Amino acid sequence: MSTNFYDKVANKFGKYHTKAKYTIEYPAGEPEKVFKKKLLELGGEQKVVLDAGCADGRFTLSMSLSFKKIVAIDMSEGMLKAARRLQDKKNIKNIVFEKQDAFRTSYKDKSFDLVYSRRGPTIFMEAFRLLKHGGYFIEIDIGEQDCKEIKKIFGRGQNFGEWDTQRKEIVMQKAGSAGFETVFLKNFFYNEYYSSYEDLDLFLQGVPIFEDYSTEKDKVHLQKYVDKYITEKGIKLERHRVVMVLQKP
Q: Considering the entire predicted model, what is its pTM?
């Protein structure tokens, strides 16, 4: 995902969130809660942690009391500025926000007890290098079926056309090649229901499903999707996440 996209979102909204209104139904558990639970179970007040792809830092800052120190990295200057503003507001001292390429960080081998990525970059090789022996890499990732139908109507989008390449299989292969042992790996499918055309439009402006999304230029595509997927609950958007816990032997 390009740094320019996240800078644009930060400049427009001041953070990595919009005020789009929607509800969510989780038929088999909430992936964000599972990810957080795993993270806290393997964390601890004496542990030094790397957050790979921290965005606006909101989640990072919410974890401050659970670890000795968090080093949070991102490539977007706009997102890092938003994170530091929020950090100053909350007066949190044990988090350091730095601009780093998550795939090629400047940190020494075995610098961290735990590395996590919350819908950020999947850095198997770099995470393995940075972790101490027995350390964990925890991630919530975007699955191959995420927003499949809206991408089909738009004819483009994040990982467009890769529906048959299962993210779980890629994780197992690449994690194993990096040297990790798989502790936990699970798919989560769920639905979001947007209150109106305007709410879905606002949501799409703030996420990288379509990095080049335009309210004006994509009006026909979005209306076609809304007409097809409007329900009594709202405009349905199918989501897919993969939660993984990997351990360095």
A: 0.89
